[in-house]
């Protein structure tokens, strides 16, 4: 069992895994970790779909446009789930619209994210490598259809994990003083100046990782990644409404 602080400080995304199978006892233990994660008001508004069908895994990889997704030994999709509790309430004749409001969706989405993070920490403590897959939102509706998700559910994030077959460099992070404040948010006059050294670190990181590809600083990545829209991601709000969530106030 590895020290949790060291694990957190040395977290790396693992994209390639060995052929070693994760035993059922470990899978059961990891599901237990997810099940005992903190949840908003104790409502436990998340579910997990474990992908064991290679055909489904292949289609998820195609949808996400990441080839290595299909090679993840374990692939779990964490789902924001208001369907289960709403069904329980309906069976007891006490359902109402507040149960499927945007507020409750945010709580459910948060529950799913807390659960997946706990599973990641548990995985890494057992010597497993992990990889988050936000690419399920490249076409969220396709994922919903593929996994037969009912109304009032919404895929939050995917997680691939297994025994690592690589040991990538630790990716540099922006100085914490730009992200952590006391009592109120701090606005800086010149962010470019503040991240000048970090930009150099990131350029060097990509130079070493991708010797044959052009490397970018963090500041140049912002317009490419945050400032661009992947096809169909603009439909996520529309998909939420289609799934039955009441995303607008009456």
Structure described in brief:
The chain has 250 residues and is an alpha+beta fold. Helices cover 41% and strands 12% of the residues.
Q: Which characteristics define this entry?
A:
10 helices; NADP; about 250 residues; 4 strands; Nitroreductase; four-stranded antiparallel beta sheet; alpha+beta; single chain; 2 domains
Q: Reading side by side through the largest sheet, how are the strands ordered?
A: 1-2-4-3
Question: What is the global morphology?
Answer: globular
What about the largest sheet? Answer: 4 strands, antiparallel
- Gyration radius (Cα, Å) is 20 Å
The helix fraction, in percent, is 40-55%
- Give the oligomer, counting copies of the same chain as homo and different chains as hetero: single chain
- Overall average residue pLDDT: 92
> How many domains would you count in the coordinates?
2
Structural class: alpha+beta
Give the beta-strand count. 4
Strand content: 5-15%
The SSE order reads: HHEHEHHEHEHHHH
Distance from N terminus to C terminus (CA atoms, Å) equals 51 Å
Instruction: Give the number of helices.
Output: 10
Q: Which residues sit in consecutive blocks of at least 5 with pLDDT less than 50?
A: none
Pfam families: Nitroreductase (PF00881)
Family: Belongs to the flavin oxidoreductase frp family.
Keywords: Flavoprotein, FMN, NADP, Oxidoreductase
InterPro entries: Flavin_OxRdtase_Frp, Nitroreductase, Nitroreductase-like
């Amino acid at each position: 069992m590895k020290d949790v602080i060291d694990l957190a400080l040395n977290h790396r995304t693992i994209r390639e895994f060995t052929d070693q199978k994760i035993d059922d006892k470990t899978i059961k233990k990891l599901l237990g970790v997810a099940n005992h994660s903190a949840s908003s008001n104790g409502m436990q508004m998340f579910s997990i779909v474990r992908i064991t069908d290679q055909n489904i895994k292949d289609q998820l990889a195609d949808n996400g446009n990441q080839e290595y997704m299909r090679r993840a030994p374990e692939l779990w999709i964490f789902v924001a789930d208001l369907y289960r509790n709403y069904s329980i309430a309906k069976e007891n004749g006490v359902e109402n619209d507040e149960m499927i409001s945007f507020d409750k969706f945010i709580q459910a989405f948060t529950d799913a994210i807390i659960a997946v993070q706990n599973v990641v920490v548990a995985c890494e403590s057992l010597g497993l490598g992990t990889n988050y897959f936000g690419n399920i939102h490249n076409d969220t509706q396709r994922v919903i259809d593929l996994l037969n998700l009912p109304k009032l559910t919404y895929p939050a994030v995917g997680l691939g994990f297994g025994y690592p077959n690589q040991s990538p460099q630790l990716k540099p992070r922006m100085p914490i003083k730009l992200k952590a404040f006391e009592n109120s948010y701090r606005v800086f006059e010149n962010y470019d100046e503040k991240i000048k050294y970090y930009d150099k670190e990131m350029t060097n990181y990509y130079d070493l990782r991708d010797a044959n590809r052009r490397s970018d600083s963090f500041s140049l990545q912002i317009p490419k990644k945050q400032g661009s829209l992947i096809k169909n991601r603009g439909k996520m709000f529309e998909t939420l409404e289609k799934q039955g969530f009441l995303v607008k106030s009456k």
